[in-house]
Design brief:
370 residues; alpha/beta; AF1104-like; Rossmann fold; three-stranded antiparallel sheet; globular
């Protein structure tokens, strides 16, 4: 919403003649559906977003950077609930018909109209600090696994364990408010394989056959997600000589990590040794952070920052991480290179669509035919 340069399409989206990029995974309506009558799927998702209002309102009330936060939070809750009611009455309202991108954008607009810019900043800072204190032990455990294939699998499971930190999901927000979930506990409680989409073995075989030269990772949440999940995984890629680009949001959305916060985290995990940049002993010169240009917990890849477009144009692997970016949007997106979609299913509605379980895991890997 506050970009200096016009957004552009992500350059690695497929340009096949018979392919049209559609970011949203779940079909909310079909051409035959009456335009001013909500579909069953639209009504389900409107209610899903309505369930998030109390936890987001509560978080907004705690924002000490906003005067009269409690009153403004109440105003947000009413305004967003009214919008959802209006979409229920006529899905063509507010730029509809609604999908997860529009519902997210309207929620963020309501927050900003009420004076809130980053209601999860305090929580993110606390979780980042906590996760950074645990990172050395997480790295040590990973490095103790001698077999490369087993280490890759361990690190991918770590991404799932970290991704459970998601305050945009009402059920998880309540759990964190009552004391949280530990990274180790999340790892140990991952649902057993096979997962609802499970291309883990194919991904491992491709990695072991020949490491990628440049990887772009669209990252998700702050705290354990980015620090204990993504960074150890990225370090393993760096170990093999891969350049790793971490693409983070431009502006705050829920508890997603943003570009400026990620820059600070990466600067803390890097150390200089005889002029070399190291990340716990691994050369980190090729670990870069870029602004994706996004401002939502989901992403439409037809609109990214020019900086990301430039630096990612020759990548040979794209990774989308998290339920919003990899499952609710972009699960079926096609690319000009290898692609990995990885995330945890945190909404029953998504689990039902995929034919899986709540808190099931998704690893969807597509190897590009060269």
């Amino acid at each position: 919403m506050e970009r200096d340069s016009p957004a552009v399409a992500f350059p690695l989206l497929s340009t096949w003649v018979d392919y049209t990029y559609r970011p949203c995974t779940i079909p909310y309506r079909f051409p035959s559906d009456p335009p001013h009558q909500p579909t069953h799927t639209e009504l389900i998702w409107i209610e899903l977003f309505r369930k998030s209002i109390p936890s987001i309102r509560k978080q907004a009330e705690l924002d000490i950077t906003v005067p009269d936060a409690a009153d403004r939070a109440a105003k947000f809750a009413k305004r967003y609930d009214d919008i959802l009611n209006e979409l229920q009455a006529d899905p063509e309202n507010h730029g509809g018909p609604p999908d997860c991108i529009l519902l997210c954008r309207l929620r963020e607009l309501c927050l900003r109209e009420c004076g809130f810019r980053d209601i999860f900043r305090r929580v993110k800072d606390e979780e980042n600090k906590k996760a950074l204190s645990l990172l050395p032990d997480v790295i040590k455990i990973a490095d103790s696994i001698e077999d490369t294939g087993e280490r890759i699998e361990h690190l991918l499971k770590g991404v799932f364990a970290g991704n459970i930190f998601d305050l945009g999901v009402a059920q998880l927000a309540e759990i964190f408010a009552s004391g949280g979930i530990s990274f180790l506990s999340s790892y140990e409680k991952l649902l057993p394989r096979p997962w609802v989409i499970d291309d883990l073995e194919q991904f491992k075989l491709r990695w072991l056959r020949k490491p990628w030269k440049k990887v772009v990772i669209f990252v998700d949440n702050a705290g354990s997600d980015i620090v204990l999940g993504i960074l150890p995984f990225a370090r393993e890629l760096l170990r093999g000589g891969t350049q790793v680009i971490l693409a983070a949001n431009d502006l705050p959305a829920l508890n997603d990590i943003i570009h400026s916060e990620l820059l600070d985290i990466v600067s803390q995990v890097k150390e200089l040794d005889d002029g070399k940049e190291l990340f716990y002993g691994v050369n980190a010169r090729n670990l870069l952070v870029v602004n994706s240009g996004n401002d939502l917990p989901v992403i439409d890849l037809s609109s990214v920052s020019p900086e990301l477009s430039f630096i990612a144009s020759d990548a040979d692997l794209v990774i989308l991480e998290g339920m919003g970016r990899a499952i609710e949007t972009n699960l079926y997106a096609l690319f000009k290179c290898d692609a990995l979609k990885i995330g945890m299913v945190k909404h029953p509605e998504v689990a039902e669509f995929l034919g899986g379980r709540l808190f099931d895991c998704v690893i969807k890997f597509t190897e590009h035919a060269s």
